[in-house]
């Protein structure tokens, strides 16, 4: 059979695109290298607890269309992410807000907090920029010191960030820290977005619904299994000579007119310009049948240098400790420690490392990608961007609109 689209990667981007294509009468076939669908938002049921196997995922957005869209496929609970940060024996609320400041400095009012923050910001501005008010921070350390001052930076940002990204804050882009709100009210909601929650029944069920009747084959590696019929030689950075106008791709007996590729863009081109950098994670998950409440919160960040993991997730609290079907309290718990690490070929990539060097390399790959009219690149890995889930849905919907309607 000839399909309109071969979708490489059964994650959120691929599933949204598959759904939109199917709605408009296009045929799709989805493959994924892993042995399951849902990519990094995969959740697995362990004694009634939806375990986020590849790290915590909390859906949040201010894009009403995206929120209404995902709500067609799942009911979302009203979980609000309020992580706690642990620095040595001290516990602080996140994001940086009046609860954090009150604990850090023993103050009560916003005016008292503001005075301390202003003083520390001024000191930072003086030492970094000689007092220049229009100074644009050059890296994450400068951005954090100018935004939050030295106490917050030293206790809650520096080591956590360096553990997560594996390099000094002076070598990281400032936009990473701008993800975090900074508030002068007592409000522990980690996100500023209007809508937030976790799909009841888990993310895997949401992806299953999006995929609907679209055929899916897991455990299939695109690079090994699929042959490009439309050019004389697949892969590499050389100009490729078109050899056919027919279906561009083949896998076994099936052919495909187009490919939507959501894997690593550099791998698609056989790393011909050299590899892009990614951060990977190692997860250590422990089932604790005799413990009902391990840490009292879904997410606890460990912000000190001496502890090698960045956070511990206690999955049951994403669903208020209750079985999402029966509503009964769940006994026992499951916790996951998250250890960041350098990505090497064969590891799961989680975060693109968007520094100048990698962004320039990505640009070369994306220029090469533009010379392949029957291949689209999407998602965090295909577009080499630190995308939240709502942005993934938005981009997949926009791509579907422009590709499928045209
Ligand atoms: N961050 C931090 N301390 C914290 C939590 C986050 O300094 O306790 C910074 C850190 O630089 C991190 C960024 O905020 O890379 C974004 O963190 P978040 O947990 O939102 O990212 P995620 O890994 O969930 O995408």
Could you characterize what this model shows?
This protein is an alpha/beta fold and 406 residues long. Among the domains are: 176 residues, 3-Layer(aba) Sandwich (Rossmann fold); 77 residues, no CATH class. The protein has eleven helices and 18 strands. The strands form four sheets. Strands 1, 2, 9, 10, 11, 12 and 18 form a seven-stranded mixed sheet that branches. Strands 7-6-14-15-16-13-17 form a seven-stranded mixed sheet. Helix 4 crosses helix 5.
Fold blueprint:
Layout: E1 2-8, H1 12-23, E2 28-32, E3 43-46, E4 49-52, E5 59-61, H2 64-71, E6 84-87, E7 90-93, H3 98-105, H4 110-129, H5 140-165, E8 195-197, H6 203-211, E9 216-218, H7 222-225, E10 227-228, E11 249-251, E12 254-261, H8 265-268, E13 278-288, E14 299-302, E15 311-314, E16 333-342, E17 351-352, H9 356-369, E18 375-377, H10 379-382, H11 389-405
Helix pairs in contact: 1-6, 1-11, 4-5
Bound molecules: uridine-5'-diphosphate.
List keywords for this structure.
single chain; 406 residues; alpha/beta; Rossmann fold; seven-stranded mixed sheet; 11 helices; 21% strand; globular; binds uridine-5'-diphosphate
Write a short abstract of this structure:
Helix content is 31%, strand content 21%. It has 406 residues and is of the alpha/beta class.
Kindly state the percentage of residues in helix: 25-40%
CATH topology annotation of the domain at 2-44 and 199-277 and 352-405: Rossmann fold
Give the class from helix and strand content and strand pairing: alpha/beta
Task: Characterize the biggest β-sheet.
Answer: 7 strands, mixed
Order of helices and strands: EHEEEEHEEHHHEHEHEEEHEEEEEHEHH
